[in-house]
């Protein structure tokens, strides 16, 4: 189920939908009825515009919420002119589904980031730092004599695409080659980020086996 929207207004002039706990609003402005076409037993209408507006206070919101909304807005921008994709009310359910799918995946990503901030120490994760659409994970393990930064580039395709990464080694011999070997064994999919962190911990940070 990817119904991530809430209908807050539907009139002859427009429909308004909220996403992400009212932090993102979509306003759909209707045009005149279309002769001979019906939608939900009522005359179908053309759509003049679809306008998205963010209401998230980025200064007050946690970084995980900011990156989630940033990724969703980048998806929206990447789709070009939404009115061309959605010229009539008939096309609106598909547009809402497409948006909801991305919102759902990005919202889960935000929950994963919050999980790592709270429980990261269990995986030898010292720090989870979010900037723009990148997350820097600082790992440190005495048993493995290692400390390094793993920076992952997030996108609105998460978790269906492999995450580009870079590694900065501070202590020890764990570098890009070792991280790449671990990441190659982690398939994309649900909780991709958490599984990446778990796999790095289990394969590289627990010390000699």
TrEMBL record:
<dbReference type="Pfam" id="PF18210">
    <property type="entry name" value="Knl1_RWD_C"/>
</dbReference>
<dbReference type="GO" id="GO:0008608">
    <property type="term" value="P:attachment of spindle microtubules to kinetochore"/>
</dbReference>
<dbReference type="GO" id="GO:0034501">
    <property type="term" value="P:protein localization to kinetochore"/>
</dbReference>
<dbReference type="InterPro" id="IPR037388">
    <property type="entry name" value="Blinkin"/>
</dbReference>
<feature type="domain" description="Knl1 C-terminal RWD">
    <location>
        <begin position="1"/>
        <end position="110"/>
    </location>
</feature>
<dbReference type="GO" id="GO:0005634">
    <property type="term" value="C:nucleus"/>
</dbReference>
<dbReference type="InterPro" id="IPR040850">
    <property type="entry name" value="Knl1_RWD_C"/>
</dbReference>
<protein>
    <submittedName>
        <fullName>KNL1 protein</fullName>
    </submittedName>
</protein>
């Amino acid at each position: 189920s990817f119904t991530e929207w809430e209908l807050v207004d539907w009139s002859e002039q427009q429909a308004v939908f909220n996403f992400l706990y009212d932090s993102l609003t979509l306003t759909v402005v209707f045009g005149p009825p279309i002769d001979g076409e019906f939608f939900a037993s009522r005359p179908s209408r053309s759509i003049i515009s679809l306008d998205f507006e963010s209401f998230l206070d980025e200064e007050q919101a946690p970084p995980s919420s900011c990156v989630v909304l940033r990724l969703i807005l980048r998806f929206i921008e990447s789709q070009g002119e939404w009115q061309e994709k959605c010229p009539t009310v008939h096309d609106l359910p598909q547009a809402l589904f497409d948006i909801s799918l991305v919102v759902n995946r990005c919202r889960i990503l935000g929950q994963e980031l919050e999980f790592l901030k709270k429980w990261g120490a269990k995986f030898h994760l010292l720090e989870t730092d979010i900037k723009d659409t990148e997350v820097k994970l600082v790992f440190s393990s005495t048993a493995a004599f290692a400390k390094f930064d793993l920076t992952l580039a997030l996108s609105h395709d998460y978790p269906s695409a492999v995450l580009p990464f870079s590694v900065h080694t501070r202590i020890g011999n764990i570098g890009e080659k070792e991280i790449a070997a671990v990441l190659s064994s982690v398939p994309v999919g649900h909780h991709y980020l958490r599984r990446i962190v778990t796999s790095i911990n289990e394969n590289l940070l627990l010390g000699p086996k």
